[in-house]
Amino acid sequence: MLPLLLALLQPVNAGAADRPTLEPTPAVGRSFSGRARELSARAPRLRDTVTLDGTLSEAVWQQATVMKEFTSYNPVDGRPAQDNTEVRIWYAEDALYVGIRAYAPPGTVRATLAERDRIANDDWVAIHLDTFNDRRRSFVFAVNAFGVQADGMRADASAGPGVSRASLQAVDLSQDYVWQSKGQLLDDGFSVEMRIPFKSIRYQLASTQDWGLQIVRQTQRTGYQDTWAPTSRAQQAFTPQAGYLRGMTGMKRGLVLDLTPTSVTSTTGRPAGGITDPDTWRYGTRGELSGDVRWGITSNFTVNATANPDFSQVETDVGQIPGDVRFALFFPELRPFFVEGSEQFDAPNRLVNTRSIVQPLGAIKLTGKIPRTDVGLLSAIDAPSSGRDGKTSPRFNIVRLRRDVGDQSTAGIVFTDRSEGSRFNRVAGFDTRLQFAKVYSVDVRYAASMTRDTVTRTGSLWEVSHGRTGRGYGYRYNVQGFSPDFETQTGFVNRVDFVRAQLNQRYTLFGKKGGWWDQRQHFLSASSLWTYQRFNERETPLESRVSVDNSMTIRGGWRVSVTPDVQRVAFDARRYTSYAVLSASGRDTLSFTPNTAQITSNMAFAVNTPQWRRAGATITATVGTEPEFFETATVQRREVEAQVDLRPSSQVRIGALLRYQRFVRDRDGSVFSTQVVPRLRLEYQFSRALFLRFIGQVESRDRSALRDPRTEQPLFRRSATGVLSAQGGRKSLLGRADWLISYLPSPGTVVFVGYGTAVDATETMRPTDMQRTSDGAFVKFSYLFRVRNGAR
Hints:
The protein is mainly beta and 792 residues long. The chain is built from 4 helices and 43 strands.
């Protein structure tokens, strides 16, 4: 499959290689006003070089094209920006140069010497480069006032409900590119110089390049986001409203070949005798070598390969309190090999989830774009320990193709295969998104699965939705279904055997200029859920829910919301066939009968503060009643989540998070469960490349013994082998602490020195009785060797 595509690329690549080198473009830089809709910019091609120091003092910046006169986008669009911003652009044969001058009242710029990709709470400016000019995706390069970088890939589907489409939250920041930046904090704002090498990105295979260009500025003092190309909230998509950077010629990437050897040495230890002998420890040390290769075959295609990769995480996944205990939680991919080019594997319904490849021995992938078609191919061999028998290595193959249709529509196919000896799971599907009249869209998706282990099973999923995105009014109607036997072992689907219908209505109001509030939004959401069989038999829904999210953005960056929620839940008796209760005589057991349908209601409150110079905070609280699925009853819900970010200096960051949840039985007032997850994150940034981090997290969970809500008798559950056991109380008090010293001068070149320890006080549930259950230390070295050949 891979050799075939490489062969197809050869004649195209040959044409590109014969392209003549052009003389530098004359220095004809001029200004382009966004508010005047001068959106077709041309940057000069110059032979000059600059020293990146953030000052914009070299004469070459006076010859650069200037983008100016920005317009507000969020929370209110269409108004002249409150602060002036000028962005200067020129290019050499090997890189694009960007100079930013952002003006602000003295002492108002929010800036920290932050870790890479963690500048969302600062003032920042982001350059969006749609290098294929397909008006669908863009590379994003963002900087704060010190030049600290955040980068990634943005697609219009990245912004979820309640997220501004211009924010960094709408960007996949897991991808890191090699580029340079330096900033200066000034009395009247800040300035930044950036250099983006052409070999760090992919772009069209053409002698003359026309790219989409958008520039976004976030000002924390006001809470506003401004854009160079005026962007309307009334349109379905954000990227197509960008301007253009036209007529770039004579660009050279040189040989694009990156080699990244990695060495990891780790030591781990556990009590030799378990909890019975916690004072005697047994330690083991292991060392591993691995390597990654990135080869830019052409300007639009890249091959990545890895052997025995190190995919160790240097940060623990944040402890989560599940909203619905019946289903598994999703954690995002963080491993470098998989996140690079991951946008090419975007598939609906999470049919591609590379975290299912647990510990690959080797992997290779091809990503890129031929005219109007995105291509993603991936093959991997997992370690035998990831297989069902512990002896056979699972093999993965993933194919994702997506075709641009018209101006904004797409159609795609996906195929995944996980094979392990004679066992396999295969999924094939197609999807299309049709956008029309700028505000309307229709989505259609279908996929079928075939799974073979002891028997062969087939299943399917389908989904149809229609929506409208307007400035003041929008809606979306959606219906999706997963058959009982649908299964994906290469994706993440945590629930099957259901059909869900959803209706969403949004009404948005905008305040007067200079008023005390900027935006009000009312978001009505209603849904009904059936089992697959109940839907086909046209029976009443198993679950129904209605909520109204009422939010307001207040001048200065405050945001408050109040969300009432009402739901009716009937319990699916098939989920409780293994449950049993004692008979009246107490000598036998009877099948457990789930409770009748429950009607519950609750209210959620949320407050987001502005990002002040030294602090910012978020707090949410939920009170009311909730269906409880273990006992099939109603519980009173009390839940609070508070997060505080402190920045006592530009180098120190303190993040504190507390998640608290308590369920109390509505029928008798007894406590059903309590969950508390505090987390503390401390960081000291010695320089942009060097930082020290501590993360401490505790998870306390306590659930009482399960009882029949009718008789209050204990609930029992029968195992697959027929053994009956009482569903007694469960509790745990676990903790973890991790220290990390990180030196990361550029992506791929890192030195990590870390230590982590886990503790347990489940026996007494007293923090003072914590005992270590494991610890470990590791040292990781990796170096990105970028082969140089005519371009830097």
